Amino acid sequence: MAAHLEKKPTEERNRKSTQNGTRTSQVQWGRAWEVDWFSLASILFLLMFAPLIVYYFIMSCDQYQCSLIDPVIDLLTGNKYLSDIWNKTPTLTYRAAGIYTLWVAFQVVLYVCIPDFCHKFLPGYVGGVQEGAVTPAGVVNKYEINGLQAWIVTHVLWFANAYYFHCFSPTIIFDNWIPLLWCANILGYAVSTFAMIKGYFFPTNAKDCKFTGNFFYDYMMGIEFNPRIGKWFDFKLFFNGRPGIVAWTLINLSYAAKQQELYGQVTNSMILVNVLQGIYVLDFFWNEAWYLKTIDICHDHFGWYLGWGDCVWLPYLYTLQGLYLVYHPVQLGTANAIGILMLGLIGYYIFRMTNHQKDLFRRTNGNCKIWGKKPEYIECSYMSVDGTKYHSKLMTSGFWGWARHFNYTGDLMGSLAYCLTCGFDHILPYFYIVYMTILLTHRCIRDEHRCFSKYGKDWKRYTSAVPYRLIPGIF
Ligand code: NDP
């Protein structure tokens, strides 16, 4: 959200390296320069176990009807050996490799070759060339925002194929799910490794690179801040949005098609998952320009965490509810279905409005109305690596006055709604809410740590004014 700052009147920018005694910490905002043992241990754990966790979840659906306990019982009782499970796992196929290559190539073409036209006719939609936030080195990148267009084109083609052309089955994703997992892993590791090599030998912006000297940390958390090929192919924007998030709704549609094929109907729980997650995905693309100001783009460097995570973790684990419902078609009672729908919609409303309030506040530099009143805020300042001093504001009105990350709270309510569609017979679909709670709580703490390094004592004033993180009065 800092990008608009360089557009402020010049009196608000102070090119002198004026100091308030906090310069050293302020110029180091962004990803860590030094690695503590806890971060290193977590990173090694994730590098070793995250791919296994994904495999375990998908395999347990394929071989154990989504039971997470049965494979362990089989192994412990000697009923099965690891080799039995592995030998039953579908291998990489030429067909899956072909599908995946075509899919990624198609998304690259949509991203690079077709400038956005949606913003020309959709009122309120911000697309086309947009600026990102100012980086720690003081760079402002330009982005071609055309994700909504890519999503629409892809889905129109998907439905056209399902209803008219019949070139492939709408269940194609489900039918090749495990072979596609191997392809996604190959791409995830390839792009992360390439990003690491690129960071060393031909970075896009050398000043925004960070080297901790620890190979594993650099591989995981990334060296380059905004790696690019050419002027427009931005790794972070491409890999996070497409193929991962465009695929999310297609994967859910494929699960719905599989239910139809297997049981002759699509259950209301599957419809709820498709609708609620569809709203979330569409919201992401409608607000893609806003996304340029979120932590992923503004603060995270591009490493395995984003590269592999976007290719494998996101499409495979964010869609577990739909996968589960293929194996266990749950038909919810009307009251339960309405309750879950309401929880999902209220969560979405809080998530969107909180994000919108901050966006509006920052875009207008506080000259706006939040809940009908002029917003209250705390003035703060920070410094980029070249010593330029910037001014900013932290809002204490609206949802931002209730808690410091109420947008995460809304996100968590929505996540819980997805899980509840699956009933209570198995824990597998609840992985998502557990994961999101850990992710967003950790993210909240990480962000606050970064904000403290960035704003120093101004951040302390803010946390005194808004003392809670996620739930007012509790946390
Ligand atoms: P935020 O949108 O909350 O952005 C945090 C940044 O906003 C801070 O670093 C600071 O940046 C600025 N800020 C903090 N407090 C204030 C304030 N009071 N007034 C004005 N600006 C403030 O975080 P994220 O980017 O993490 O999240 C964006 C959305 O994406 C969230 O709704 C989250 O739920 C969602 N999300 C979803 C994920 C998923 O996997 N589904 C993963 C991650 C996020 P600055 O330096 O500009 O001051």
Automatic annotation (TrEMBL):
Gene3D superfamilies attached to this UniProt entry: 1.20.120.1630
Catalytic activity: cholesterol + NADP(+) = 7-dehydrocholesterol + NADPH + H(+); 7-dehydrodesmosterol + NADPH + H(+) = desmosterol + NADP(+)
Membrane topology classification: Multi-pass membrane protein
Its EC number(s): 1.3.1.21
Location(s), subcellular: Endoplasmic reticulum membrane
Keyword Lipid biosynthesis: yes
Basic and acidic residues bias spans: 1-15
Pfam families in alphabetical order: ERG4_ERG24
Principal location: endoplasmic reticulum
Pathway: Steroid biosynthesis; cholesterol biosynthesis
GO biological process: brassinosteroid biosynthetic process; cholesterol biosynthetic process
GO cellular-component term (any): endoplasmic reticulum membrane
Transmembrane stretches, start-end: 37-58, 148-165, 177-197, 302-320, 332-351, 415-440
UniProt superkingdom: Eukaryota
Protein name: 7-dehydrocholesterol reductase
